[in-house]
Write a sequence for this structure.
């Protein structure tokens, strides 16, 4: 996806407004809490294993593909516990791909963290680890919210310029509503899940 035109950005803004207007009271409450709860989980794990929130968030993110959130958290605890006990990636089972399990161990053992070259996961990690207001997770659901259509997972990648445009637009919209960018994104994620799954 190339640089978005002014017309396309105006359409995205209208789509985000429309979707936010569909949010229930519960979705707003849950969305506002989601990243704060994720941060608290990372803080608990980092305190218990004498690590830090950025490493824990990287492990959590590495273990997230095709993994339900509750299981994702359990797997993160499991990986840290296994590492503490001197186990290797091949010694345990988690509910994601083998390559991601090895990435998770590499995060702890060699401090190999996700970089800006992986835009979505880099922003996701920073939203969780630091509750950063200058980062924004633009996943498949946020793209569906922006473009008001059911985008397929394999066509969900956007270029760096378009990512920055959508991120800045979303954060500004959130601020106008008295929300953090990550809170607004989480609310939209919940609404989008409900509307596209019905």
């Amino acid at each position: 996806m190339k640089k978005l035109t002014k017309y396309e950005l105006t359409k995205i803004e209208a789509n985000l407004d429309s979707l936010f207007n569909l949010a229930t009271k519960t979705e707003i409450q849950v969305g506002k809490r989601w990243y704060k709860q994720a941060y608290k989980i990372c803080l608990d794990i980092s305190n218990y294993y004498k690590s830090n929130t950025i490493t824990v968030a990287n492990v959590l993110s590495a273990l997230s593909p095709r993994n339900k959130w509750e299981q994702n958290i359990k797997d993160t605890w499991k990986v840290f516990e296994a590492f503490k006990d001197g186990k290797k990636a091949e010694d345990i089972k988690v509910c994601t791909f083998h390559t991601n399990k090895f990435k998770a161990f590499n995060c702890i053992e060699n401090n190999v963290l996700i970089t800006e070259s992986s835009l979505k996961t880099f922003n996701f990690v920073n939203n969780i680890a630091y509750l950063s207001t200058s980062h924004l997770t633009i996943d498949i659901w946020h793209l569906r919210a922006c473009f008001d259509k059911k985008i397929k997972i394999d066509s969900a990648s956007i270029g760096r310029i378009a990512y920055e445009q959508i991120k800045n637009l979303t954060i500004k919209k959130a601020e106008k509503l008295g929300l953090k960018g990550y809170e607004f994104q989480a609310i939209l994620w919940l609404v989008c899940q409900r509307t596209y799954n019905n």
